């Protein structure tokens, strides 16, 4: 295998896939490195067509299997056989916690783009201005106008279904038809929008194909709701179904799975990175690959770990860490706070198809002076779920048995509704990851140590999430309304971000406005690490847009430099 | 699964009348015949436990115009789940509860439960299940406690209901997620293709089988 490329992309998740596609389509010979195993679209989705009875334990997992994923199981999907194979073995991939942090990972080609939640929302200038306005952390070096056309490009390419409501806090997008509301979702929307003038209930925006636009190699969502297993129809967006095949089609991509990048090498002569050091996960062989451009998309914590390990005379504390901010300001959304209820009066209504999403209530707090809160800044959005329960999973209070029970089990259960907040988390300087060189992994590499906790602002916001959810479900006329406020360790939302933030000043940030490391301009970081604030929207769409934008910046510079080099050579001749 | 499918096809092809005793245990809910309760090898359940479990499963979800829980192999499923999925503590509590149930039986009918009829076992279950809703609530609360926090004088009640409640919920789970119920009794639609947001229950019939 050759060891010199135009570009290297580290990681194949939602942002790495985009970097690979854009760089390859831009004509760059690109090496794409993934630390985990190969996963080929469709071929490697072993559970995609399995019914409950096809699983030996009908989907339940053994205590022995769960013990090997004792951290991963904080995510409910890990408790089910259908998707557990997408999550890492915690014994093989350990990490350290000064305070509890649930680090949920998928080490394989496609990363977490296979099992992501698919909700896709734009950030607005309310978000890009927030740090500056609140005098918190540092200001974003970009505004909505800088990213808008990249949001357009990404949405049109991946396919996002949903509705535009012209809200300042949630910019309109290039959307395909929304997945329609069922009878109870409609009722909830009607009640809330007639009783509150500050909130809307809209179909969640999800990266699924609806409508007739053609997406190469993919087809429409079939409403199986088996997304997390990998979709044989490519109904939802993943790196495997979309960006990696696009990169492959150019003939410019070399994809190497089982490649653990542990260092980006800095060359003092050029003032740039010269390449990456890799350990083959299977053979433990050490390799070095050179490239002109490096995109680091190893995920927020993975990226921080690689950069912190990349020590040199110039960067003794990690590549590009002049500011001391590398590994710091780690954020995640806080979640699992909201309410549930039972809905009566729609017993004769039902639906066909398993809709893989439900409703969204965009942020309605701290948008303007009218909506300003005393106890917290920023805000949250509600993600909801509505459907008829299965009577056999419901905890029927009485100990019924016999013919009546059997008859009951076969009927559609009660209508249930739940809504949970996804809350913004502030970038706290003290929330950080560091490297632990005492506890090494199987490959002799340092493990990551988390020291992260939510603060007063998040805790106060949670109280409001619960209160508003209870009030809204009650106002809608629903019954048995119950508050939910479950323990939510940082990490469990799987929206970790911020460890190599963008900023204007190299003294206080790691990346510039094009996601380049300030002092090492041929290294781009475009995964969640780059985030300067977390907003409350699901962040993947923003990672993809920033990646596409940065890749075009890199391609332009690459071509300019090539042209320059050519001119110099001609002059010399 | 392949074997089960093959057996099922065989049975449907030839009709039930010629089913051999081997098939009866798997296909037919013939436990009403009192002694002929099962023809399979349990991995965790003792002979006595298997007898009790099979009868109770048959009582909890009986055969009607559609198959009951025994015919879709729920007793075997209960045995498998106890072996592989339930924790050691829960499995021990389940077994302790089954022993207590057998003791209650002996007290009531003055004979070993292995000689008990389905009717007698059903009468005993009724004593524990057909109770005041307030009692049900209290027992549910008791069940939620960690076994180590349960007062000694309530330990037997805890174990007995751990057995009965676990068995009831495994029966519902095993029945509803079985191939026969999932494909032929509930409304089965593996690839809907589209979402129809508002239709009447009558148009669908029984509940959808897949989540």
Give a description of the structure.
The complex is a heterodimer of chains A (573) and B (211). By secondary structure, chain A is of the alpha/beta class. Chain A has two domains: 1-161 and 233-333 and 433-452 and 492-573, FAD/NAD(P)-binding domain; 168-204 and 334-423 and 455-489, no CATH class. Chain A contains eleven helices and 18 strands. In chain A, strands 1, 2, 5, 6, 7, 8, 17 and 18 form an eight-stranded mixed beta sheet that branches. The longest helix of chain A has 33 residues, at 540-572. Chain A is globular, with a radius of gyration of 24 Å. Chain B is mainly alpha-helical. Chain B has one domain (2-177). Chain B is 59% helix and 2% strand. Chain B contains ten helices and one strand. Chain B has helices at residues 2-14, 21-27, 47-60, 74-84, 88-109, 118-129, 133-144, 155-176, 179-185, 201-204; one strand spanning 196-200. In chain B, helix 3 (47-60) crosses helix 8 (155-176) and helix 5 (88-109) packs across helix 8. Chain B starts with a helix and ends in a 7-residue tail after the last helix. The interface between A and B is large, with 53 and 59 residues.
Specify which chain pair forms the largest interface: A-B, 53 and 59 residues
Task: Determine the mean pLDDT of chain A.
Answer: 97
The count of domains of chain A is 2
Distance between the termini of chain B: 21 Å
| Tally of separate domains of chain B | 1
The portion of residues assigned to helices of chain A is 10-25%
Classify the fold: give the CATH topology of the largest domain in chain A.
FAD/NAD(P)-binding domain
Instruction: Note the run of SSEs of chain A as H and E.
Output: EHEHEHHHHEHEEEEHEEEEHEEEHEEEH
**Overall spatial form of chain A:** globular
From the helix content, strand content and strand pairing of chain B, which structural class follows? Answer: mainly alpha
Oligomeric status of the shown chains? Answer: heterodimer
Determine Rg of chain A (CA atoms, Å). Answer: 24 Å
Provide the succession of SSEs of chain B.
Answer: HHHHHHHHHEH
What portion of the residues of chain A fall into strands of 2 or more residues? 15-25%
* CATH-defined architecture of the largest domain in chain A: 3-Layer(bba) Sandwich
Q: Tell me about the largest β-sheet of chain A.
A: 8 strands, mixed
